[in-house]
Each structure stands twice: as structure tokens, then as C-alpha cells.
């Protein structure tokens, strides 16, 4: 069956800020306390969405979360008017307030794991929102994420939605950032690679020592079960714990796949040979391109700094792939040299497009973090909420919406401003009309 892959990018929310909340994510830590520009961040994201739509790809948009998250602050014991809740939280625990104001839902690669209908037992697309238990500011996303996904993909004949896994470290799940699908073409059954950082139940499995492994094997297995993937479809691969300790907090910082291409750093996996052998065995008859980037051409630190592997590999026309890379890749000499060489290697990758997503990069989110991939058939595409699909009109409308509602500068001190809460709610209320989502936010209930 004809199928294609759509990208659903997270629209950056009005409270985008740099709070240094993600231990183990080098960019988040080193840019903590900087002044952000929510307006510029949202526009950089919209420009990327538009660029992909202009390449002829199906591009969708996912709404951000309601932030500041007053409901969570109340649940944690702050009382009074909304303005008092903000002020008390700021005085007592400014880090907690920042966590409840993060625009981190922009990184929709962590919104959910998605398995296309070609792979699942019941022939529907399956979605499991990620519980994101490892970071508090992200663990408060999954409920609204599930609600938004339910409104974008509402038709039960085509789409199946699961709740997030139990919210416990044993089942730490970071969604599609640790999941890649390989296939001959999008419409035929593929293999789904689940990359995990540690095992919760088996202490003999190696684990990082310095930084947390956010994804467990047990979580990956549970998602594969929920989605109805059989043992020929799901492959569980352990990430190299040493790279987690050097800042690779998700697999999509060190590897990316598209159709028959797997692009990865030499140090990405604990046992690369076994992983590649299993992929070959489970995808017989498919011409596979394993593009391994050697450490002596691109040192790990350069890969992390430039986000060479947090690129999107897309297929604008059959057999012709393009890499969507952050501008940091053009600015890092070893990476630029590698990308120039890559285009001469005779792989399906023929073009590189550089995009400026610096506002997101400064929090450790590159082009691939900003998107959730949904491979779909024309019928599934038709059953998707059309108001969430990018085109000239939506692009123009969202640009104006950002201009009207977003601040150009935001510091951590601004997060307690009750006006920011009002501005955000006004903006999001209007957005739910633009995207035809209905009431998805706590303040709308
Ligand atoms: N896939 C990319 C995710 C980046 C995200 N960064 C953050 O949440 C940083 C937020 C801050 O520090 O303000 C994370 O680490 O989960």
C-alpha cells in the first residue's frame, strides 16, 4: 500500500525559557538562566515546518501544553488566586516554578511512541504517550499530550491510543526519541528499533555511571506489546552507556533511521554488530544502508555539540533522501566535512538542508527532537484532523498568532508574572480554535 511519513512538530509555547532542568543534557545545563525569546523560538519552529511542507512532505503541528501549570502547583500545595500561587511558588521554590513553566512539550519526539499500521497486529496506528518520568518538568506532560493526540488522530477505525506507562522509574519511557523504524518503503512491514539505556530489573546489564539512563528495556518492551508488534518486528538494542555519560541523553542524539538507512555514530550502541545482524535477519530482501560515522572523523563531543544525528532524514521523492540539519552542523568543521563527504558516498542521502533552530538547540533540542513521525496511508491521512496540517494559510495564521501573543524576551524572573499566565491562556484558547482541538487544557475544563 502507498504510504508516506508525516512529521508532527511541536509548536513552541509562549513560556519557552532556559531553566537548566535537564541533568545529563549538556545544552540545557550550560545555557541555564539565559534570557530566551519565545517569539523567535516559535518562528524558527514554524519556518522548519514550512520548509518541510515546501519539500512536498506532509507536515503537521501539535499544540503546546498549558504553562504555567497552575493545576500542578495547586496539587503541590500552593493556594490562593492564580497570581498568589505563582508568587508563593516563586518565593518558596523557584526551580519548581520553572519546571511548571517549561515549554518542553515542543520536543514532540518525546511526546509518544508511534507504530504505523503496517507493523501492528490490528492494522491501526498505535500511540503511547511517553511518561517521561526521569524529569519532573517533563513527567507532567503526558496527560495533555494524550488528549491532544486523541483530537488530532480521533478516528478509532484507524488510530489506537494507549495511556502512558506506569509513572515509575522502572518504566521510564521517552517515546520516539528512542525509537526508529526501518523498512523497504513506508507501507510495508518494517522493524522497529527500541533503544534503551538500562534495564530496571536486571542489574547485570551495564548502565551509565554519571548521567541518568532515561529509557528502560522494560518500558520499551511494554510499548512493543501494547502496539501489537511481534518478535520479528521489534528489536531491542542497548545504547552505549559511555555515550550517555558524555551527554547523549536520548538515542536520537546519536542515531537516526529512515526507510532503509540507519545513520549512526560508531559509539552509539553497546553491541553494534549484533544489532545490525538482527536488523538484517528481520528485514530479509531489503537493501540496507548502514552509515556508520567513525569517531576519528567526527569525535563524539562534536556530534553532541552539532547534533549531527538529531537530523531528520526525509524522502521528498522515492529513493532520494535529504538531511535536515541544524545550522550548528555547518558551523562545526568535522561535521561539515563529514556531511560534504556523505553526499559523495552513493547512499540514498542526496541533499543537506540547514535550518536555524537555535532557540531550541540551546535547550538540547535539534530538528529531530522537534518532530513526531507518523507513517500513514492516504486513508489515515484523510482521517487526521486537517486543521493541524501545515499549508500556506495555516503558516501565515500561526505566524500572526505568535506575533500577537508571544513575548520577544523572557527571563526566569518573568515566570511569576500573572500577565504571562493570562497571555498564555489567551493564546492557547485561540489556538485550540485554529487547530480545531476542542477543550484540551485544564483551564478550559
Ligand atoms: N529531545 C530533546 C529534549 C530536550 C529537553 N530539554 C529540556 O527539557 C530543557 C529544559 C530546560 O532546561 O529549561 C530534555 O532534556 O528532555
From TrEMBL:
<feature type="binding site">
    <location>
        <position position="252"/>
    </location>
    <ligand>
        <name>substrate</name>
    </ligand>
</feature>
<keyword id="KW-0378">Hydrolase</keyword>
<dbReference type="Pfam" id="PF04996">
    <property type="entry name" value="AstB"/>
</dbReference>
<feature type="binding site">
    <location>
        <position position="363"/>
    </location>
    <ligand>
        <name>substrate</name>
    </ligand>
</feature>
<feature type="binding site">
    <location>
        <begin position="19"/>
        <end position="28"/>
    </location>
    <ligand>
        <name>substrate</name>
    </ligand>
</feature>
<comment type="subunit">
    <text>Homodimer.</text>
</comment>
<dbReference type="InterPro" id="IPR007079">
    <property type="entry name" value="SuccinylArg_d-Hdrlase_AstB"/>
</dbReference>
<comment type="function">
    <text>Catalyzes the hydrolysis of N(2)-succinylarginine into N(2)-succinylornithine, ammonia and CO(2).</text>
</comment>
<keyword id="KW-0056">Arginine metabolism</keyword>
<feature type="active site">
    <location>
        <position position="250"/>
    </location>
</feature>
<feature type="active site" description="Nucleophile">
    <location>
        <position position="369"/>
    </location>
</feature>
<dbReference type="GO" id="GO:0009015">
    <property type="term" value="F:N-succinylarginine dihydrolase activity"/>
</dbReference>
<dbReference type="GO" id="GO:0019545">
    <property type="term" value="P:L-arginine catabolic process to succinate"/>
</dbReference>
<dbReference type="InterPro" id="IPR037031">
    <property type="entry name" value="AstB_sf"/>
</dbReference>
<comment type="similarity">
    <text>Belongs to the succinylarginine dihydrolase family.</text>
</comment>
<feature type="binding site">
    <location>
        <position position="110"/>
    </location>
    <ligand>
        <name>substrate</name>
    </ligand>
</feature>
<feature type="binding site">
    <location>
        <position position="214"/>
    </location>
    <ligand>
        <name>substrate</name>
    </ligand>
</feature>
<feature type="binding site">
    <location>
        <begin position="137"/>
        <end position="138"/>
    </location>
    <ligand>
        <name>substrate</name>
    </ligand>
</feature>
<protein>
    <recommendedName>
        <fullName>N-succinylarginine dihydrolase</fullName>
        <ecNumber>3.5.3.23</ecNumber>
    </recommendedName>
</protein>
<feature type="active site">
    <location>
        <position position="174"/>
    </location>
</feature>
<dbReference type="GO" id="GO:0019544">
    <property type="term" value="P:L-arginine catabolic process to L-glutamate"/>
</dbReference>
<comment type="pathway">
    <text>Amino-acid degradation; L-arginine degradation via AST pathway; L-glutamate and succinate from L-arginine: step 2/5.</text>
</comment>
Amino acid at each position: 500500500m502507498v504510504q508516506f511519513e508525516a512529521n508532527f512538530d511541536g509548536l513552541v509555547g509562549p513560556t519557552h525559557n532556559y531553566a537548566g532542568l535537564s541533568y545529563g543534557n549538556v545544552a540545557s545545563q550550560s545555557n541555564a538562566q539565559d534570557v530566551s525569546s519565545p517569539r523567535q523560538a516559535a518562528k524558527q519552529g514554524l519556518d522548519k515546518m514550512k520548509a518541510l511542507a515546501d519539500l512536498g512532505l506532509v507536515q503537521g503541528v501539535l499544540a503546546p501544553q498549558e504553562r504555567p501549570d497552575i493545576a500542578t502547583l495547586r496539587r503541590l500545595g500552593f493556594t490562593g488566586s492564580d497570581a498568589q500561587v505563582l508568587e508563593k511558588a516563586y518565593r518558596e521554590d523557584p526551580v519548581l516554578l520553572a519546571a511548571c513553566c517549561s515549554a518542553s512539550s515542543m520536543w514532540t519526539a518525546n511526546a509518544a511512541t508511534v507504530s504505523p499500521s503496517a507493523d501492528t497486529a490490528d492494522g491501526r496506528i498505535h500511540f503511547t504517550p511517553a511518561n517521561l518520568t526521569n524529569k519532573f518538568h517533563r513527567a507532567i506532560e503526558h496527560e495533555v499530550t494524550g488528549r491532544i493526540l486523541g483530537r488530532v488522530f480521533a478516528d478509532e477505525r484507524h488510530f489506537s491510543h494507549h495511556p502512558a506507562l506506569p509513572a515509575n522509574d522502572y518504566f521510564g519511557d521517552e517515546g520516539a526519541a528512542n525509537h526508529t523504524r526501518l523498512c523497504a518503503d513506508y507501507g510495508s512491514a518494517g522493524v522497529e528499533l527500541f533503544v534503551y539505556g538500562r534495564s530496571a530489573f536486571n542489574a547485570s546489564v551495564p548502565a551509565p555511571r554519571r548521567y541518568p539512563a532515561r529509557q528502560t528495556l522494560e518500558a520499551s518492551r511494554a510499548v512493543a506489546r501494547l502496539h501489537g508488534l511481534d518478535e520479528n518486528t521489534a528489536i531491542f538494542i542497548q545504547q552505549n552507556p559511555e555515550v550517555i555519560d558524555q551527554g547523549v541523553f536520548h538515542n536520537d542524539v546519536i542515531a537516526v533511521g529512515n526507510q532503509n538507512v540507519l545513520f549512526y555514530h560508531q559509539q552509539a550502541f553497546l553491541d553494534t554488530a549484533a544489532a545490525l545482524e538482527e536488523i538484517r535477519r528481520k528485514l530479509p530482501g531489503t537493501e540496507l544502508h548502514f552509515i556508520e560515522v567513525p569517531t576519528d572523523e567526527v569525535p563524539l563531543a562534536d556530534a553532541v555539540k552539532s547534533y549531527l544525528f538529531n537530523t531528520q532524514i526525509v524522502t521528498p521523492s522515492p529513493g532520494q533522501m535529504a538531511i535536515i540539519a541544524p545550522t550548528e552542523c555547518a558551523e562545526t568543521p568535522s561535521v561539515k566535512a563529514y556531511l560534504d563527504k556523505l553526499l559523495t558516498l552513493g547512499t540514498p542521502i542526496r541533499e543537506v538542508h540547514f535550518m536555524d533552530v537555535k532557540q531550541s538547540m540551546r535547550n538540547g533540542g535539534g530538528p529531530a527532537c522537534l518532530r513526531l513521525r507518523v507513517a500513514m496511508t492516504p486513508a489515515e491521512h484523510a482521517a487526521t484532523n486537517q486543521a493541524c496540517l501545515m499549508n500556506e494559510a495555516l503558516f501565515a495564521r500561526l505566524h500572526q498568532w505568535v506575533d500577537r501573543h508571544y513575548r520577544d524576551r523572557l527571563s526566569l524572573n518573568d515566570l511569576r508574572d500573572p500577565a504571562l499566565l493570562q497571555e498564555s491562556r489567551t493564546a492557547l484558547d485561540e489556538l485550540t480554535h485554529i487547530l480545531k482541538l476542542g477543550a484540551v487544557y485544564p483551564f478550559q475544563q
